[in-house]
Design a protein that fits this description.
CATH architecture of one domain: 2-Layer Sandwich
Distance between the termini: 61 Å
Strand order of the largest sheet: 3-4-2-5-7
Number of helices: 5
Radius of gyration: 36 Å
Order of helices and strands: HEEHEEHEHEEHE
Helix content: 25-40%
Shape: elongated
Structural class: alpha+beta
Number of strands: 8
Largest sheet: 5 strands, antiparallel
Strand content: 35-45%
CATH class of one domain: Alpha Beta
Length: 253
């Protein structure tokens, strides 16, 4: 019988390269299977935590809003009212003030059909924005400014430091709730454990402006209008997915 020919060095090298390619192909074919297994064991869930705290900041808008036949007269009246208001605000160092809007526009009558509108005069609107955490000082100041300006709106909210600390605390609670729920799910399926696939954390603070008419403000006593700051709720939601590890095979009878 003829004897097998021994491989030359070149043939041995080619055979080794061929076997290496086969192992790489088998490994690549296994990746979709592993990915499918992770997808099959993936669970989507979410957890939410919230907390409520008292508002500790107050923002108000004061306005000079009048109309008349001469724009120069309105500008003079507005300037005197704003300067007088600023002089009183300067006596309250805990109250911060900033200029708001300033606009003037002509006023025309609504003519009957077929007629042109006629010029009626001018309207001037100018505002100041006051901001403070000292509610008592704000109430006193508003009482002093009643003869000069009208109160457009009031807004209560949380100071940045308060919001930051509260959001951090609620975020920790939401994450703990997410981990607790993930562990509960893993144990319920008799899994050996879980790994987090993805996470998103959303937070929000509920704040609502409080509209107040100028007439209501003007009729208050000299001590200033009374307000109830109310509360704000901070909520944090953690959404994500987990992949269960080592789940046993389930046999349906």
């Amino acid at each position: 019988m003829p004897q097998d020919k021994c491989d030359t060095p070149l043939e041995s090298q080619l055979r080794g390269i061929a076997m290496h390619k086969i192992w790489i192909a088998l490994l690549l074919l296994s990746f979709p299977v592993l990915g499918l297994a992770k997808t099959l064991n993936q669970v989507n869930l979410q957890a939410t935590a919230s907390a409520t705290t008292a508002n500790d900041e107050m923002t108000v808008e004061l306005a000079f809003d009048k109309q008349g036949p001469k724009i120069s007269t309105l500008v003079d009246q507005s300037s005197r009212a704003i300067h007088s208001a600023l002089a009183r605000i300067n006596h309250f160092p805990k109250i911060h003030v900033a200029s708001g809007v300033y606009n003037t526009y002509p006023i025309y009558s609504t003519p009957p059909a077929g007629s042109a509108p006629s010029f009626q005069g001018w309207r001037l609107h100018q505002t100041l924005i006051l901001h403070s955490s000292d509610f008592q000082a704000m109430q006193t100041l508003l009482g002093q400014l009643q003869p000069l300006l009208t109160l457009s709106w009031v807004h209560f909210g949380l100071a940045p430091t308060t919001r930051h600390h509260l959001t951090d605390s609620v975020t920790q609670s939401a994450i703990k709730a997410f981990r607790h729920r993930a562990l509960l799910i893993a144990r319920s399926f008799d899994a050996h454990g879980y790994v987090i696939g993805q996470l998103t954390i959303n937070n929000g603070v509920e704040q609502y402006p409080m509209p107040v008419s100028g007439m209501m403000f003007a009729k208050k006593s000299a001590t200033g209008p009374l307000f109830r700051p109310g509360q704000n709720r901070v909520s944090v939601t953690v959404r994500g997915s987990i992949v269960l590890n080592g789940m046993p095979a389930l046999h349906i009878p």
